[in-house]
Amino acid sequence: MSRIKMVSPVVKNMPWQEKPKNLVGAPVWRYSDNPVIKRNPVEGVSRIFNSAVIPYKDGFVGVFRGEQTNGIPQIYLGKSRDAINWEFQKEPIRFVNEKGELFMPPYAYDPRVVEIEGIYYIMWCQDFYGPSIGLAKTTDFENFVRLENPFIPYNRNAVLFPRKINQKYKMLSRPSDTGHTPFGDIFISESPDLVHWGRHRHVMGTSKYWWEQLKIGSGAAPIETSEGWLLFYHGVCLTCSGYVYSMGGAILDLENPSIVKYRCRNFLLTPEEWYEERGFVPNVCFPCATIHDSETGRIAIYYGAADTYVALAFTQLEDIVEYIKEHSSVTESDTEIGIR
User: Fold this and answer.
1) Which of 200, 223, 224, 329 has its CB 3.0 to 4.6 Å from that of 265, i.e. a possible disulfide?
2) Which residues make beta-bridge pairs with 243?
3) For residue 54, what are the β-bridge partners?
4) This prediction's pTM
């Protein structure tokens, strides 16, 4: 019986593959049949990557970054019985405003999806006179209503926590610039109503460890555990051949998640396989979602690979939490309240 508990629903039909016997390093292993989503997955879409999935009814749904053949990304809906084999709608998700009028973003990419109190919220990056955060809700994955944009430009990598904390919604984000941002820390903001946002706090910044020395950004929605909020995020370094995106892990305080309790100094996953090293943007492992089961502690991590594919990795709650704690290295800016 694990002494570390996961506070989330049971997902009995989640995808899973046992840990290889020869695994070394972090207790995260790749699905042997990666990538799970390959090139040209639907007519008019050349690549799907950096996408999010979630259990829904007796199966799974996903919101997917679809890079259209005109080069403009939009968000597509996908459905699956096993969270590995996906069927996609042929047209992008049709967003409307709160009056029911069509309200499509000029572009939309890197979505996340989170369920809070029976409502599914989708976040993505879009144009709001510069890159910023889009937000929408649905209860049935048929009707999608856009809400007010949470923040002004420039911002990316937003994800809501899967429950209110002290009666407030909490959202992680990464302030950025107009292009391939050469900087970036993770911040947290709160709202009573998903319209008015404030009480912004710094969560954590880049570190001295080379794999995350340039910038970091939030990834999958945090997982509530008895040790704190388990966060998978991406860290970026600059090499002679360009940026390299790796997956990192941290544990945030449950009631005040601007405080970092533990932060792994080692990457959990870095580009090593062909589908991570070769593609439209080489050398990218970009986590965007997890499916996790509180009964077994199993966690399936979905990540974008080389801006071309969707790949899948696995870990076990107790193993990954213990690994992060054992290899933790936090700084004063990690552990402080995050306001100056």
Assistant:
1) 329
2) 238
3) 61
4) 0.97
